Amino acid sequence: MPERSSPAPVDADGTGAVRYSERLWVPIYWWPIAFGITLLLAAEIDMGIRAVPSWLPYLLLLPVPTWVLVWLSRLRVEVVAPRDGTAELMVGRAHLPVDVIARTAAVPASAKSAALGRQLDPAAYVQHRAWIRQLVLVVLDDPDDPTPYWLVSTRRPERLLEALADAGTPR
């Protein structure tokens, strides 16, 4: 599936400009693998249950991999600047005003396992997708929030960091 990682004129509800938008699609090679497994399962059901019409397992099971892969690809990472002037980092349903961001950094693929393993703070907000190699670290400076930082998967960490910098966060 194509991925949108470029600025768009306005966000979904029409309240402001989108500085960065990316949907974290699963890799393209997952699609034929998922459909192949589904076809094998449908053929096995077809051969195993003679009372069922031969086309029924295929009809019922073929929408399943599409639903699963689209569901796995539902996460969207955006930097939105509403008209009221307070920009936000939006990761899925979570919103973070940029004025509470102390600093940001890209986490390369070589440091990903350490960032998600022994160095991970249990209070951190993590939106990780295993098929994406890079992460962005967003350190918070909000005394009212117990979350020390966010770790977010992204295919283009430099563009996301640029969008956050344009929205007023330090790097």
Brief overview:
The chain has about 170 residues and is α+β, with helices and mostly antiparallel strands. The protein contains 5 helices and 8 strands, in the order E-H-H-H-E-E-E-E-H-E-E-E-H.
Task: Give an overview of the whole structure.
The structure is a single chain. With 171 residues, the chain is an alpha+beta fold. It has two domains: 104 residues, PH-domain like; 43 residues, no CATH class. Helices cover 29% and strands 26% of the residues. Strands 1-2-3-4 form a four-stranded antiparallel β-sheet, covered by helices on one side. It has a four-stranded mixed β-sheet with strand order 5-7-8-6, covered by helices on one side. 23% of the residues are buried. The N terminus is likely disordered.
Count of distinct strands:
8
Indicate the mean pLDDT: 88
What portion of the residues fall into strands of 2 or more residues?
A: 25-35%
By CATH reckoning, the class of the largest domain would read Mainly Beta
What is the element layout, followed by pairings?
Layout lengths: L15 E8 L6 H19 L7 H6 L1 H10 L3 E7 L5 E4 L2 E4 L3 E7 L4 H5 L8 E3 L7 E6 L8 E5 L3 H10 L5
Q: How would you describe this structure in keywords?
A:
alpha+beta, single chain, elongated, disordered N terminus, 5 helices, 4-stranded antiparallel sheet, 171 residues, 4-stranded mixed sheet, 29% helix, PH-domain like
